[in-house]
Design a protein that fits this description.
It is a single chain. Helix content is about 45%, strand content about 15%. The protein has a four-stranded parallel beta sheet, with helices on both faces. α1 (about 25-35) crosses α5 and α3 (about 95-105) packs across α5. It is of the alpha/beta class and about 180 residues long. It has one domain: Peptidase C15, pyroglutamyl peptidase I-like (Aminopeptidase), CATH 3.40.630.
Length: about 180
C-alpha cells in the first residue's frame, strides 16, 4: 500500500530589530532546497513579526494544509530565557528522542533542548500553533547567521531535526492506533 502523502508546514520569521536578515527564514529557505522525504509535501512560509498577522496566519495554515506537523523556526538572540509559568501546552513530540537522534547523526551542528520558545512573538506563535494542533507542533531556534553556522549547515540541521520529528510522531501514532484497536 502506498503511504499517504503528508503535509509539513515550516515557518521562519521576517526581519525585526537588529536582524535585518532573519536567520530563521534563511535556514527555512535552505531546508526548502533540500526538501524532506518523498512522501512529504513541504510548505514554507515567512511570518512577519506582528502579533495580528500571526493570530490570523497560523490558524489559516492549519486549515489550508491540515499538516501532520508544523515547525516554527525563530532566531535566538539570547542564550536563554526565564523559565515559563505553569500554563503550558506540551508538544506531543518527544524532543529528548529527537535531540539524541539528531546528535547521533554527527552533523557539525550542536542541538540542545529548550523549555521556552523565548517569550515574545516566538512563544506567541508556538502557543497559537500548539493550540490549533493539539500538540502537533514544534519550535526550533537557530542562531544568527555565521554565529557560528552557515545557512547550509542550518538548513541541513533543520532537515535532520524535522525528519526525526516525523519519525517520532509516526511511532507515537502507531502506538495510539494500536491502543484504540484492542
Amino acid at each position: 500500500m502506498e503511504k499517504p502523502r503528508r503535509a509539513v508546514v515550516v515557518t521562519g520569521f521576517g526581519p525585526f530589530g537588529e536582524h535585518a536578515v532573519n536567520a530563521s527564514w534563511i535556514a527555512v529557505q535552505e531546508l526548502e532546497k533540500l526538501g524532506l522525504r518523498d512522501d512529504v509535501d513541504l510548505h514554507v512560509y515567512e511570518v512577519p513579526v506582528e502579533y495580528q498577522t500571526v493570530q490570523r496566519l497560523i490558524p489559516a495554515l492549519w486549515k489550508k494544509h491540515s499538516p501532520q506537523l508544523v515547525v516554527h523556526v525563530g532566531v535566538s538572540g539570547s542564550q536563554c530565557c526565564v523559565e515559563g509559568g505553569p500554563e503550558c501546552i506540551d508538544s506531543i513530540i518527544d524532543m529528548d528522542t529527537v535531540c539524541k537522534r539528531v546528535s547521533a547523526l554527527g552533523l557539525d551542528v550542536t542541538v540542545t533542548i529548550s523549555k521556552d520558545a523565548g517569550r515574545y512573538l516566538c512563544d506567541f506563535t508556538y502557543y497559537t500553533s500548539l493550540y490549533q494542533s493539539r500538540g502537533r507542533s514544534a519550535f526550533v531556534h537557530v542562531p544568527p547567521l555565521g554565529k557560528p553556522y552557515t545557512a547550509e549547515q542550518l538548513g541541513r540541521a533543520l532537515q535532520a531535526i524535522i525528519e526525526e520529528m516525523l519519525d517520532v510522531l509516526e511511532h507515537s501514532e502507531d502506538k495510539i492506533n494500536c491502543q484504540h484497536e484492542h
